[in-house]
User: Fold these one by one.
Assistant:
Number 1:
Amino acid sequence: MAESDFLALSGSAKEADSGPRPVPRHVALIMDGNGRWAAKRGLPRFEGHRRGVEALRRAVRAAIGIGIQYLTVYSFSVENWSRPREEVQGLMGLLHRFIRNDLAELNANNVRVRVIGARAGLDADVAALLREAEQVTEGNSGLTLVVAFNYGARQEIAAAARAIAEAVAAGRLSLNDIDTDAISAHLHTADIPDPDLIIRTSGEQRLSNFLLWQAAYAEFVFLPINWPDFDEGAFKAAIEDYAHRDRRFGRVEPVACNAKTGS
Ligand code: FPP
């Protein structure tokens, strides 16, 4: 796709206020393959994660340029606690440095940071840093960067079920009120639209407990490159792929406006 076409798509996405569009409103990234990237080069796994943060920075800048409104990144899953202690500490250190070093630039670029995942069980300093990133940027109106940290989709759904059960037991909600909207409203992503596109690097083709509920009608792009090699070109190619999908949401006719119909 020529750069000019790309920008035209981006502009039309900004104008439309509802429904699917050529440029996805919400892209979610499964940043996989840091370890394999490092192993291929005879480097420690930590170096793969460190280079992964650089790729994350590039991805955020590219998302702003493309006109994406929400970018969710899977940075630490609940299952990642079972990695070696040293690797977990390394990832926590990278999160620290990412927020410390990049928060000012994110804020200057009108990025709003949101964090999804369980706060319980996090070190107090990590939890405080996540809160700070959200508070400092809460008035921003540009890209929303959703950091999935200590996140697990099944855990999120179980917590929503508990909250709904409590509301029913307390008489605040009736059984008949429990529908798909009610469940969505009790997830960490309550005020965030569902992802239109999920991109996973490293060649793996699975969701790994990421946004299971929200991904019901997401499109998927699986890239054969490892996360540290993800760049603006790879991002734009994935968006172009998405723009040619017919999204039917269970209906017969495509309901998406896309690059083919231009509608
Ligand atoms: C998967 O690669 C990646 C992760 C578990 C962590 C993702 C984290 C980053 C990109 C950098 C950290 C960013 C923040 C903000 C904390 P893997 O290690 O599972 O790769 P492998 O499957 O090749 O071993």
Note: Residues 31-36, 49, 52-53, 56, 75-76, 80, 91, 94-95, 98, 202, 227 surround farnesyl diphosphate (CB under 6 Å).
Number 2:
Amino acid sequence: MKTEEQVPSRRSFHLTMIRLLGGLIGAVVAAPAAVYLLLKPKSDTGENLVEIASLSEIPAGKPQEVVYYRTRVDGWKRIREKTTAWVVKNSNEDAVAFHPACPHLGCAYHWDGEGGEGAGDAFVCPCHASSFSKDGAVLGGPAPRPLDRYVSKVEGGKLLVSSEIKKVS
Ligand code: FES
């Protein structure tokens, strides 16, 4: 025969359920927090090279704006994004890929190779009129340094570009 203390009461059943529910809610909150705190976020090391052009299709000495897609890793997110590079091919084994933002304040510059208004045969930034030669050197304007370059290499006639930027001073 069970005593009165041994018989589970409605009150003790509710207390047990409340404790279980509290533990469950704690686990639901703690698990993502633990993952966030214990797992190291990934970052884009710039080591991933993306093939952006076949050099046989780019005329030598004439800068070309190449549009391509790359995957950027930002924390726990992988973002596929469209981007561009200005490519200057010197030969089928040698080319430079310039970052498309002006080193002054980041405007998009363009190649003025038609000898029209502006510097003519130069990269020209429309924001404050900086201009750069084909090899990225500053020709005029407020730009503090030459055009930034992507880390890149040529393999089998293909130009491979990293997201890492090399600043030339
Ligand atoms: Fe290009 Fe200022 S942003 S010259």
Note: The chain has a mean pLDDT of 87.
